[in-house]
Amino acid sequence: MLNTTVLVYLSEAKPDLPGRVDCHTISEVASELSFIVGESEASAVLEGVSIVDAVKTKSKGEERWLSTADIQLAAAAKSSGFVLVSDDKKLLSAAKQNKTKCLDTPHFIESLTGKIEKSEALEILARLKPVYLRKKLLESVEKRIRSW
User: Fold this and answer.
1) What is the DSSP letter of 104?
2) N or C: which end of the chain has fewer CB within 10 A?
3) Residue 83 and residue 110: Cα distance in Å, rounded?
């Protein structure tokens, strides 16, 4: 279950990847993506991505720094049994508190072992380097992928 930030990163690094590896999101995230990168680029990234129903929840307080779309995405991931992929630390923290499995973008790429080639994973990480904020995390995942 991909959030907007991950989809923006993938639009830069490998727009066709989400549609090739059985990814999901909610319509609110798709709308946010279209607003950020434009309709054409969003359509390319979302091609083949399953849009699942958002899950409306009652706020428990720990989500006060999250958008409605983030809360609904995390709830949809949990209710569907999907892994939530996000680089938003507050979203990941809230999702983990609710016992939702979570990954950040580099670990998501790493998790695709067997679905994509090592060279493709390294290419994606190399394209993310100029835009990804957590450089040390990216480098540590890249090092592990090199040892595949």
Assistant:
1) -
2) C
3) 14
In 3-state terms, what secondary structure has residue 83?
Answer: coil
User: Domain segments of the chain: what residues?
Assistant: 4-146
What is the chain's pLDDT, residue by residue, as a tens digit (148 residues)? 999 999 999 999 999 999 999 999 999 999 999 999 999 999 999 999 999 998 877 656 556 678 888 999 999 999 999 999 999 999 999 899 989 999 999 999 999 988 999 999 999 999 999 999 999 999 999 999 999 8
**Phi, psi at residue 122, to the nearest 5°?**
-65, -35
Token pair recorded at residue 140: 């540590």
Distance CA 29, CA 84 (A): 13
Q: Which CATH number fits domain 4-146: 1.20.1070, 3.30.160, 3.30.2010, 3.40.50?
A: 3.40.50
Residue showing tokens 């639009």: 11
Tell me the residue type at 105. T
Q: What confidence score (pLDDT) does residue 59 get?
A: 59
For residues 74 and 72, give the distance between their C-alpha atoms in angstroms, rounded to a whole number: 6
Q: Residue 103 in contact with residue 21, Cβ under 8 Å?
A: no
